[in-house]
């Protein structure tokens, strides 16, 4: 996710990290396999799903679970890498691959849980085809999600990307742009607030839900779940995959109860991937 993070977001992220370190520095060290498993998560839907597990399933399974919410896409992996938290739940494989490569971290997936379809939203048009020539479309500024956003527009005929372009696609890779769309790169968390200032915005599912948007209903374009590589998973620092607490959580996150919770709670805006 290219890190054009704004100052305000950086401050929030730093504050969140400081809080996480302070809280974990006492009895919740990720090295203490007998203590609580502290998991970093985006508020929606990740923390909501984890809190469902904590409130309804964890005690019976003998798991003490603590959920720490973060609003950015950098701090959870950095906190997992340095041991401030024992695991995280917020990301997909292309994002993790890019993050590990750029930051020198060695975070690995444990179990895949759900998909949040990326969507195009607008306060100004009801159909993507109604976007006027020269319209401005906001997209995530991080590498993987920007490419993902452009692929969504490509798949729906608004633009055409260069053949074979991968998860580092940028507007420079557009070879056909019949509407002459202009692109505004913003940090992913800022995108819902941009809808009054741009003609449309491609928004990650978790941030859309946080902003009271219903992807299955409100998006004018929505990713297909079929063969989608962007499902979200529980992740840990390499070497911690066999932590008994992590194994318990992985089993609970892919249980029939969690599947039903996701289906009932999000009504198609979040889809179980197991």
Automatic annotation (TrEMBL):
Entry annotated with the keyword Transmembrane: no
InterPro entries reported for this sequence: Lipoprotein_NlpA
Lipid-modified sites (S-diacylglycerol cysteine): 24
Signal peptide stretch: 1-23
Topological type in the membrane: Lipid-anchor
Coiled-coil ranges (or none): none
Subcellular location: Membrane
Cellular component GO terms, alphabetical: membrane
Keywords: Lipoprotein, Membrane, Palmitate, Signal
PROSITE patterns per the UniProt record, alphabetical: PROKAR_LIPOPROTEIN
Record-stated family: Belongs to the nlpA lipoprotein family.
Protein name stated in the entry: Lipoprotein
């Amino acid at each position: 996710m290219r890190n054009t993070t704004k100052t305000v977001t950086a401050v929030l992220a730093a504050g969140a990290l400081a809080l996480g370190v302070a809280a974990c520095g006492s009895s919740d060290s990720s090295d203490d396999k007998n203590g609580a498993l502290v998991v970093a998560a985006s508020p929606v839907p990740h923390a909501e799903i984890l809190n469902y597990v904590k409130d309804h399933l964890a005690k019976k399974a003998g798991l003490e679970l603590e959920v720490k919410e973060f609003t950015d896409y950098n701090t959870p992996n950095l906190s997992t890498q340095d041991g401030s938290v024992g695991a995280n739940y917020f990301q997909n494989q292309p994002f993790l691959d890019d993050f590990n490569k750029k930051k020198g971290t060695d975070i690995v997936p444990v179990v895949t849980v759900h998909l949040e379809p990326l969507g195009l939203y607008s306060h100004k048009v009801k159909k993507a085809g109604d976007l006027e020539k020269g319209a401005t479309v906001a997209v995530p500024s991080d590498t993987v999600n920007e490419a993902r956003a452009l692929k969504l527009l490509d798949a729906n005929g608004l633009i055409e990307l260069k053949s074979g372009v991968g998860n580092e696609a940028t507007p420079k890779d557009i070879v056909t742009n019949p509407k002459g769309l202009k692109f505004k790169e913003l940090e992913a968390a800022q995108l819902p607030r941009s809808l009054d200032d741009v003609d449309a915005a491609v928004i990650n599912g978790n941030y859309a839900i946080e902003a009271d948007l219903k992807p299955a209903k409100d998006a004018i374009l929505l990713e297909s779940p079929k063969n989608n590589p962007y499902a979200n998973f529980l992740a840990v620092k390499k070497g911690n995959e066999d932590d008994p607490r992590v194994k318990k959580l992985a089993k609970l996150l892919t249980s029939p109860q969690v599947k039903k919770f996701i289906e009932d709670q999000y009504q198609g805006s979040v889809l179980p991937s197991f």
